[in-house]
User: Which sequence fits this backbone?
């Protein structure tokens, strides 16, 4: 995969101007990202594109926040990227709460969005609100859920409970069985129109932003034009109001070849394997640990131990 030169990563602040590792200076302390600030980010109104990345634990959240992203999504893709499952259908609300809490412990400046897993909002509206609250209590500032018009009652109820909701349309991975695989959506005129209508309805129901995944670029452009809330694309072309990538795809940490739409900015998987191989070689050759990496005892203790060794070695 081609890797164009990534933009320079800003350096961390010189002093304690913001949360540990956040990108700020004493002159411009990092302000927390909020739902209203995200909601206002329409590019057609002159706003800068939103940057979202997934993170599933404290170190990843710290790294993403230090890089200056706007939103960290604790995605249910933790299932494939961290827990080794084939799809996202295997994670529960308890799994998502645990990972959301780990991300929140980084105390990031960016907005933390907790992904509602399959079956956490499909059984009843009450169940959905309770599960959304579980993610908020774990540290999320908003929740995301997948689907179109069928989700309107749930979105309305969660928003009524004062919990901000991000929608997710197009290729919705929790529908993998119904879709018969991970297929680009909205390819016919009717499907594109339905997607656009669903996006408008979700925005009216109160979603503050919409993820558009796996749709043709012109469809994403048309949806982005049709709604007043920002769209955040993944495999949806450049016209969206923002972009999201999976942490492991972006950094080259995944087990499989990343999808066509994912740009890999680093090969950390290879670097990590090389580093661990170097450690293994040092252990096997005796080069690790060295004197500096060892604790030393006082001269008295050393001679006492030497005397004990002599006694053990002496013939009875
Ligand atoms: O879980 C996830 O990673 C997602 C993104 C693909 C948007 O939902």
Assistant:
């Amino acid at each position: 995969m081609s890797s164009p030169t990534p933009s320079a990563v800003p350096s961390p602040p010189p002093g304690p101007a913001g949360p540990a590792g956040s990108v700020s200076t004493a002159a411009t302390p990092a302000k927390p990202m909020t739902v209203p600030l995200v909601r206002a980010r329409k590019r057609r109104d002159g706003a800068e594109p939103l940057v979202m990345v997934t993170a599933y634990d404290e170190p990843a959240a710290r790294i993403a926040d230090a890089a200056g992203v706007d939103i960290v999504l604790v995605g249910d893709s933790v299932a494939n990227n961290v827990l080794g499952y084939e799809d996202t259908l295997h994670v529960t609300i308890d799994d998502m709460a645990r990972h959301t809490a780990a991300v929140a412990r980084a105390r990031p400046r960016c907005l933390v969005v907790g992904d509602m897993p399959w079956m956490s909002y499909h059984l009843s509206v009450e169940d959905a609100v309770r599960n959304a609250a579980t993610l908020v209590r774990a540290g999320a500032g908003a929740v995301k859920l997948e689907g179109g018009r069928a989700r309107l009652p749930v979105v309305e109820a969660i928003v009524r409970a004062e919990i901000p909701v991000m929608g997710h349309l197009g290729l919705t991975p929790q529908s993998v069985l119904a879709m018969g695989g991970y297929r680009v959506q909205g390819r016919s005129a009717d499907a594109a129109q339905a997607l656009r209508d669903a996006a408008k309805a979700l925005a009216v129901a109160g979603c503050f932003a919409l993820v558009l995944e796996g749709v043709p670029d012109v469809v994403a452009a048309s949806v982005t034009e049709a709604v007043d809330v920002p769209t955040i694309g993944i495999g949806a072309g450049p016209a969206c109001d923002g972009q999201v990538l999976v942490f492991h795809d972006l950094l080259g940490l995944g087990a499989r070849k990343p999808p066509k739409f994912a740009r890999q900015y680093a090969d950390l998987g290879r670097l990590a394997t090389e580093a661990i191989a170097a450690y293994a070689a040092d252990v096997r050759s005796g080069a690790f640990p060295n004197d500096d990496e060892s604790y030393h005892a006082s001269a008295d203790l050393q001679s006492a131990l030497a005397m004990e060794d002599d006694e053990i070695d002496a013939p009875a």
The chain is about 40% helix and 10% strand. The domain at 35-270 is CATH 3.20.20.60 (TIM Barrel). The chain has one domain: 35-270. The pocket of 3-methyl-2-oxobutanoic acid is lined by residues 54, 73, 75-77, 115, 211, 213, 234, 244, 246 (CB under 6 Å).
